[in-house]
Design brief:
By secondary structure, the chain is mostly beta strands. It has no helices and eleven strands. Strand 7 and strand 8 form a beta hairpin.
Amino acid sequence: QVQLVESGGGTVQAGGSLRLSCAASGRTFNSYAMGWFRQAPGKERELAAAIGWNGNSTYYADSVKGRFTISRDNAKNTVALQMNSLKPEDTAVYYCVADRAAILRDPSIGHHYWGQGTQVTVSS
């Protein structure tokens, strides 16, 4: 079992920055690939960024490449998403997700753990 708690959401003007953090319970955090999904009203859920269990592999959606950076600290059981140059289209609820695999799999495969979500609002 893994419990995930996100923090760091809020409201920011376009061009600004936010840093999301996700704290995970459990002693096997380094066995989990981690990711950040986001979902805007009326839109499908989108994988924004992911990181492998050892931090050596990362994935970014084209829409966030060059602006977002995902990182993890296995000693502290945390994963972070640094979001820079934010745009109104980044407005969404952001969810931290854990998957007991080397690389994050599609949520339809295996069992994923989800945080409660944190709202990010970017005003124009």
